[in-house]
Amino acid sequence: MRRLFGSVRSRATLGATLVVAVALVAAGAAVLLSLRSNLIDQAGNEAERTAQNVVAQLAAGTAYDQLDLDDDSPVQVVDAGGTLVAANDDLERISGTATDAVRPRPATGGEDTDDDTGQEERDDPGEIGDGTEFTDGSATIDGDTADYRFAAVPVEAGDRGTLTVYAGGSLDAEQSAVGTALTVMLIGFPVLLAVVAGVTWLVTQRALRPVEGIRGEMAAITASEDLARRVPVPGTHDEVARLALTTNETLAALQTSVERQRRFVADASHELRSPIASLRTQLEVGTAHPELLDLDGAVEDTVRLQDLASDLLLLARLDAGERPGDTRFDLGALARKQAEGRANVTVDAPAVPVTGSRGQIGRVLTNLLDNARRHARSAVTVTVREEGAWAVVAVADDGDGVAEADRERIFERFVRLDEARSRDDGGAGLGLAIARDVAVRHGGTLTVGRAPAGGALFELRLPRAR
Question: Is the sign of the CA dihedral 176, 181, 182, 183 positive or negative?
Answer without folding.
Answer: positive
